[in-house]
Design goal:
Elements (H helix, E strand, L loop, with lengths): L2 H38 L11 E8 L3 H14 L3 E8 L1 H9 L6 E3 L3 H8 L9 E6 L1 E5 L20 E4 L4 H12 L8 E3 L2 H9 L5 E5 H7 L4 E3 L9 E7 L6 H12 L1 H9 L6
Parallel strand pairs: 1-2, 1-3, 6-7, 6-8
Antiparallel strand pairs: 3-10, 4-10, 5-8, 5-9
Helix pairs in contact: 3-4, 8-9
Keywords: Metal-binding, Signal
Family: Belongs to the bacterial solute-binding protein ModA family.
Protein name: Molybdate ABC transporter substrate-binding protein
């Protein structure tokens, strides 16, 4: 090879190495630029900020606990608001299937939740988040000396039950059937709060409600446990609704309910763990 050819080849090698170095530098610079851009944009890695109203339809027995959790949610997510519609689970389910706008449904029984899921109005499978057990609520001091479910059948005793279509009423009927007892109440109420209120207002001597409602009433009533209640414990399912107007915030609220903090609020109210 001539000296001129060797010189030409060496020049090409140097030029090639220089080009490679420039390409590497360019790639590195581009990578650093992308990294800086991602780092300066919080939305690239952080979850979108929640805002707007979350509408929750929930069984009446959940009122105290859910209102507490609603306030906690609003505090954790500034710019959000949680609104509630409490009532009998069957009525709420009918409202949802009828087109009432809502984000979350928390029912007091799988049967009432099925009204919603059977119509295809739930987004995914509902999850049980708590359970609840029945208790007898009597007037303060228990003047009628009610000590058992059977005592509620005593002549002249004014007893109130939830309607049989409502979870607390269905559970009470299940306990009565298991005990082979027949009870004719002075009234059937559309939700557990209404049944309890009859005793609080002294319009009834006793009512079969949930432990959580007796606990929430404090000294306004006296609770009487009965063993048959163990045969009629209700599972409480919760679900995101298919046409939820604010699905992102609704999912976050459900997550709070299922979290350790949410469970602490619920169990302190007397609910049983799922």
């Amino acid at each position: 090879m001539t000296r001129s050819a060797r010189r030409t080849r060496r020049t090409l090698q140097v030029a090639g190495a220089g080009a490679a170095a420039l390409l590497a530098l360019s790639a590195c610079s581009s990578s650093d630029s992308d990294s800086d851009t991602a780092g300066s944009d919080p939305s690239a890695s952080a979850s979108p900020k929640l805002s707007g109203t979350v509408t929750v339809f929930a069984a009446a027995s959940l009122q105290g606990s859910f209102e507490t959790l609603g306030k906690q949610f609003e505090k954790e997510h500034p710019g959000t608001k949680v609104t509630f519609s409490f009532g009998g689970s069957d009525t709420l389910a009918a409202n949802i299937t009828g087109g009432a706008p809502a984000d979350v449904f928390a029912a007091a029984s799988p049967k009432t939740m099925a009204i919603v899921t059977d119509k295809g109005d739930a987004a995914g499978a509902p999850a049980t988040f708590v359970r609840n057990q029945l208790e007898i609520a009597t007037l303060p001091g228990n003047p009628d000396k009610v000590a058992s479910l059977k005592d509620l059948t005593a002549p002249g005793l004014k007893v109130v039950l939830c309607d049989k279509t409502v979870p607390c009423g269905a559970a009470a009927q299940k306990a009565l059937d298991a005990s082979k007892l027949k009870l004719t109440p002075v009234s059937y109420e559309q939700d557990v709060k209404a049944a309890l209120n009859k005793v609080v207002l002294k319009e009834a001597d006793a009512a079969v409600v949930y432990k959580t409602d007796v606990q929430a009433a404090g000294d306004k009533v006296e609770g009487v446990e009965f063993p048959e209640s163990a045969t009629a414990i209700n599972d409480y399912p919760i679900t995101l609704l298919k046409n939820a107007p604010n699905a992102a915030a609704a999912k976050a609220f459900i997550a709070l309910v299922q979290s350790a903090d949410g469970q602490k609020v619920l169990t302190s109210a007397g609910f049983l763990k799922p």
